[in-house]
Each structure stands twice: as structure tokens, then as C-alpha cells.
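Checklist before submission:
- one chain only
- standard amino acids only
- sequence pasted in full

Submission:
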Amino acid sequence: MELIEEIEELKKYKEDNDLTIAELARKIEADDTTVGRWLKGEVTPNSYSLHKVRNFLNDIKNSEDLKPLENFRDKVTREREQTELDINYLKQRIKALNDIEDLDTLVTELNITTQLGNLVRDAHNTPF
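Returned file contents:
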């Protein structure tokens, strides 16, 4: 297997499993910046890293029967985490909107108070 084939297999694995470079790097036990540079073709793995890549690819090939369920679980976990983040964001937005509605009430009261103050001032400045 040529080196370029191994990197292409890594790319394919990353895409097929919807992984980030950081997630792929953790699986290979390599630095994510370095893995990103491999995938872009900027650098090639040194002999130790190449050994880890080959072991990783061999492990994938040997356990393909078990991976689909694990990949599904990983995807469901990522989707659940994203959903929780989205829900928390929406809760924050709703709270901010409620705060704005409270401010609208305060602004209305302040305007009424200002108008009353102007009426009182005008009443004191008008001679009887």
C-alpha cells in the first residue's frame, strides 16, 4: 500500500463517518494539526505516525462488522449534544425576549411618569 493510498483511506473514513479532523486524530492518537496537514497533502507522516495510521486502518478493516452500530451511536450522541446546545440557545433567546418585554413595560411607565411630571411642572408655572 502506497502512502497516498493510506491518506486517501483516512480521508474516506473521515468523510464516511462524518468526523472532524480532531476526532480522526484522537482515533489515530495523533495531533489534529498534523493529521489536517496529512489530509491536505502538505506533509507526509513520519515512520512512527505511519505505523499508527496503518494499525488504525487495519483495525478498521478487521472490525467492520461492529462499526456500523458504533457509528450510529456516535452520530446519535453528537446529534443529541447538538440538540441540547440548540435548546439551551433557544432558552437564552426566549429569556432575552422576555427581558425586552419587561423593558418595554418600564419604558412605557417612564414615559407616562415623564408626561405627568411635565403636567405638574406646567401647572406650577401657570399663574392663577
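Reviewer check: The radius of gyration is 31 Å.
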